[in-house]
């Protein structure tokens, strides 16, 4: 779709205005029927409403209604019972009605995964189990009869996050050793998309090559510890985030680490930020949240990158992967200091080591008292060897 922003006008703007009003983000004395004309303007009030919606839904807050924001607006407008919900491979269903169904199934003990608004195979399995338990046809279709049964039963248990508990238990059971862990490393860009070109005392290097080089350095260190690593793409390819998520799911990995750089019209914007899955329904990846915290602390302690902290987001890459996934925005290539640091091969070595140490801390589950920024790659290798010898 065409990206809509402040100053645009037309029927598409009217649709967005009407949707946001219905969701409670826009308070307007004008009747909705007056918004259907082609002269409806994307004004400052609508810009503010779009930004508030984006912030609440874990989207990039830029006031622009692009494909991701438009899709999220459509999802937010669905209410449970307004349509039949069914698992469809060719045209998967997304929406707040799916999230409401997942929450009800979770409260009843039939669904333990993320409340993400995606009607996938796990939602289908949970719904089918519920139907089978109460004597309905276990077809995995949420229609009027199933909704009546959900309403009649109410909830047996509420509170807590089964998905967060199951994520933590998987990490706990896998043990502290890194050997055997399966990790997907996802360098951004690729193919013909080279991104920003950085010129420094180390020579010119593209954003894509910075990310690819860092991925290979991280891959080498992980392989040295006995981890099994996969790259989400070949060098000459730039898959979509949905394609990257699908590839990663096929590997059956324990974690996915996505590497990105940032840019801004303001050259003063700088620093590193990390992202994990987290949405407005209160569902988030607890392991992703813990790992992003470790990554931020380790990289900030070892480099001059400013700490822009970790955040929950609903981006496709974080939402559609089965394993805990984190995205690391390593700095702004539009900032001279960040660009110079990322162009330096020695800095990329330091960042790769910091990310590996953060992953190790995750699997130690807080059983390590070494101060942030002091745990070295040599110490990690020695510890991995000692764990292997005692098994």
From TrEMBL:
<dbReference type="InterPro" id="IPR050695">
    <property type="entry name" value="N-acetylmuramoyl_amidase_3"/>
</dbReference>
<dbReference type="InterPro" id="IPR036365">
    <property type="entry name" value="PGBD-like_sf"/>
</dbReference>
<dbReference type="Pfam" id="PF01471">
    <property type="entry name" value="PG_binding_1"/>
</dbReference>
<dbReference type="InterPro" id="IPR002477">
    <property type="entry name" value="Peptidoglycan-bd-like"/>
</dbReference>
<dbReference type="InterPro" id="IPR036366">
    <property type="entry name" value="PGBDSf"/>
</dbReference>
<feature type="domain" description="MurNAc-LAA">
    <location>
        <begin position="245"/>
        <end position="360"/>
    </location>
</feature>
<dbReference type="Pfam" id="PF01520">
    <property type="entry name" value="Amidase_3"/>
</dbReference>
<protein>
    <submittedName>
        <fullName>N-acetylmuramoyl-L-alanine amidase</fullName>
    </submittedName>
</protein>
<dbReference type="InterPro" id="IPR002508">
    <property type="entry name" value="MurNAc-LAA_cat"/>
</dbReference>
<keyword id="KW-0378">Hydrolase</keyword>
């Amino acid at each position: 779709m065409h990206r809509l922003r402040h100053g645009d006008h037309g029927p598409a703007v009217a649709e967005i205005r009407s949707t946001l009003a219905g969701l409670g983000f826009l308070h307007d004395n004008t009747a909705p029927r007056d918004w259907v004309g082609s002269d409806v303007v994307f004004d400052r009030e609508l810009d503010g409403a779009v930004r508030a919606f984006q912030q609440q839904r874990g989207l990039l807050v830029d006031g622009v209604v692009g494909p991701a924001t438009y899709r999220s607006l459509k999802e937010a407008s669905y209410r449970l019972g307004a349509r039949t919900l069914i698992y469809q491979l060719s045209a998967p269903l997304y929406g707040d009605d799916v999230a409401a169904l997942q929450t009800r199934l979770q409260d009843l003990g039939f669904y333990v995964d993320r409340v993400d608004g995606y009607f996938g195979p796990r939602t289908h399995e949970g719904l089918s189990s519920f139907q089978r338990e109460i004597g309905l046809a276990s077809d995995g279709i949420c229609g009027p009869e199933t909704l009546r049964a959900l309403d009649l039963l109410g909830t047996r248990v509420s509170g807590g996050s089964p998905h967060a508990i199951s994520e933590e238990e998987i990490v706990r059971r896998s043990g502290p050793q890194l050997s055997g862990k399966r990790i997907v490393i996802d360098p951004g860009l690729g193919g013909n998309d080279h991104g920003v070109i950085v010129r420094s005392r180390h020579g010119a290097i593209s954003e894509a090559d910075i990310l690819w080089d860092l991925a290979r350095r991280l891959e080498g260190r992980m392989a040295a510890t006995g981890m099994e690593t996969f790259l989400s793409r070949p060098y000459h390819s730039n898959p979509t985030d949905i394609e990257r998520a699908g590839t990663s799911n096929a590997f059956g990995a324990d974690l996915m680490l996505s590497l990105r750089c940032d840019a801004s019209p303001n050259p003063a914007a700088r620093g590193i930020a990390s992202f994990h899955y987290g949405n407005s329904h209160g569902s988030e990846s607890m392991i992703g949240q813990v790992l992003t915290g470790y990554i931020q602390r380790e990289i900030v302690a070892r480099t001059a990158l400013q700490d822009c902290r970790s955040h929950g987001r609903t981006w496709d890459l974080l939402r559609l992967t089965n394993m805990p996934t984190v995205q690391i925005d390593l700095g702004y290539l539009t900032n001279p200091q960040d660009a110079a640091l990322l162009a330096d091969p020695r800095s990329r070595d330091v960042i790769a080591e910091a990310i590996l140490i953060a992953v190790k801390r995750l699997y130690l589950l807080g059983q390590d008292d070494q101060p942030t920024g002091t745990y070295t790659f040599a110490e990690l290798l020695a510890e991995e060897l000692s764990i292997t010898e005692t098994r």
